Amino acid sequence: MNELKIKIVSTRIGYSNSILLVNGSNSVIIDTGVKGNINRFKLLLKQFQLKPSDIRLIILTHTHYDHTGNLKALADLTGAKVLVHKNEFENLKNGFIAIPVGQGKFSHFISKLGRDLPQFCITKTILLQI
Q: Within 10 Å of residue 109's Cβ, how many Cβ atoms?
């Protein structure tokens, strides 16, 4: 019986976590972290001897900006398909990214300020609904 051997690598991208499921030419990234960290992903791929095309799928747990920030850059780099829950699909397709409410007084204030400003935009990419 063949044993499936996937290495699970959790890494901090900005102030949120991304997960790389290392499985050779069928590897997966879960969440893309805060925008502007594409070089962290390039180093991670190099560390595990992966080519960008080895990433076949990018999974988003939800569409907050700290989980989707490098989505466009990663999708362009890897050619991977994107998987997002059907309840989040329209938000992502239309460039709407909900800003979370924050946990403490300061983060609550900053989040409210962000929600009151014009919404962030994401360039369209290939999306799948589940």
A: 11
